[in-house]
Amino acid sequence: MSRQEYGTGNTPWSGEIPQEVERFLESILGRALGGVLRTGGGKYVPTCDLKETDQTYEVYFDLPGVDPSQIRVEMHEGKLLVAGSRKTFDEQERASYHRIERPFGEFYRVVQVPGEVDIDNVEAQYRDGVLQVTLAKAPQYRARKIDIRTS
């Protein structure tokens, strides 16, 4: 029986796919298949959600099995970068598997934040395999109530 590995470059589409093609595939086929098509060289792209509140942007990344010390979070020109690595199998351990579908190795994800961020007020928390990055909105972009005066 042959072993199947997904997200490790052993697909018919191994290698780099231009970003325009990635976006097209993702819009037509959805994240699941688009992610399989674009993973190559042992890299994978973690899924994420972006939520906006009155005061913050909150970005959640699914990173199960990742050691928090192996995660790097950076902000640059309105983009949030999350990068790191998930432990790979050693050759002896890999030999006993018939199927490997969970991604491993290096990963990165860049998320465009929809507004200005107070760069000095960014927090990251990792719990139960989910990385939450909370980015405070710059004061001029925060929602605020405006009182109505009457004469």
SS class: alpha+beta
**The CATH class:** Mainly Beta
Number of domains: 1
User: How would you describe the shape?
Assistant: elongated
Count of helix runs: 2
The low-pLDDT segments are 1-16, 31-42
Residue share in helix: 10-25%
- Please give the number of β-strands: 9
Assigned CATH architecture: Sandwich
How can the largest sheet be summarized?
A: 4 strands, antiparallel
Distance between the termini: 83 Å
Strand arrangement in the largest pleated sheet: 2-3-9-8
Beta content comes to 35-45%
Q: What labels describe this entry?
A:
single chain, 151 residues, alpha+beta, Immunoglobulin-like, four-stranded antiparallel beta sheet, three-stranded antiparallel beta sheet, 2 helices, 9 strands, disordered N terminus
